[in-house]
Structures are given as C-alpha cells and as structure tokens.
Design brief:
42% of the residues lie in helices and 22% in strands. By secondary structure, it is of the alpha/beta class. The chain has a 5-stranded parallel beta sheet.
C-alpha cells in the first residue's frame, strides 16, 4: 500500500511546503507516500460547475484498488489512537493506494462524496489546502510512529 495525498490546488507557499516536505520525508521511512496537486477549476461564480470539473479530474485518476478518503469538516473525527487502529485495518486489505483528497476552494462535488470510502475531519474548522496538507501529513506521520512503536506520540 502507498499513501497519496491529492489536493485540488495550484501551489503551496514555500515555508509551508518545506514543513510538509519534512513530514513527508519522515513518513516515507515507514510507508511510500507522495502528494499530487490537481489543477483547480478556473475561478467562477458557478460553484457547482467548478466542483463537477474538479470531480472529473479526480475520478480520471482513480484506479480499481484505490481507497479514497475525503477530508471534510463533516466527516468522522478520529483521535490519533483511533486513526492508528483504522490504519492497521487498511494495511490488511488489498489496497494499492490509500488516497486522501483535500478539496478545492469551491468544496467537493457530491459524486466524490459518494465515491469516497470514508470522509474524515481534521477539525470542524475549514482550513486552506496548504494547512490541511501540513496537518494531514503530520498526523499520518504520528499514526505511523504509533504503529512502529516510535516515541513521537505521547498518549495521556
């Protein structure tokens, strides 16, 4: 299994990209992972059309053995320990890529919500994709340090 983070976005600020890269490098010690930026729709006032365009771009990239997880403020909230247990279960499945999707500025089309195997929440707050990528990457690293009995996470 590989982990892939897809973000519907143009670019990331250099300072945040450096922080994200640091956690990606750490995470790659445990599991192959990388990030792909998916081009967003052109700026528009027709949010529904923009969401459909972005959904099509995502759906074209999906493969049969992919497991799509959508980040959404209305998704399931995990504690870090619960997320580690969930990840253990995914590692026992025949998954090629575990894909975490961070939606674009216009939100996510209902077609992607239906296609997702799980929707998770990093918070009830809405974050720009750059911060969501940083938080997600750090949390994935934290989960894998738990799974590999590394002293990064301190459970109370």
């Amino acid at each position: 299994m590989r982990i892939v983070i897809w973000a519907i976005a143009k670019k990331t600020a250099p300072g945040l990209e450096e922080a994200i890269s640091e956690y990606e490098e750490r995470l790659n010690r445990f599991i192959p992972m990388h990030t792909e930026l998916i081009p967003p729709a052109q700026p528009t006032t027709d949010f529904q059309a923009a969401r459909r365009i972005e959904a099509d771009r995502v759906l074209q990239r999906l493969r049969e053995k992919d497991y799509l997880v959508l980040l959404d403020e209305h998704g399931k909230a995990f504690s870090t320990s619960e997320w580690a247990a969930w990840m253990t279960e995914r590692q026992m499945e025949n998954i090629s890529r575990l894909i975490f999707l961070i939606g674009g500025a216009y939100g996510v089309d209902k077609q992607l919500k239906q296609k997702a195997r799980l929707m998770i929440s990093l918070s009830r707050l809405t974050f720009p994709h750059q911060l969501a990528r940083l938080i997600l990457t750090e949390q994935l690293y934290r989960v894998f340090t738990i799974l590999h009995h590394q002293p990064y996470h301190h459970e109370s």
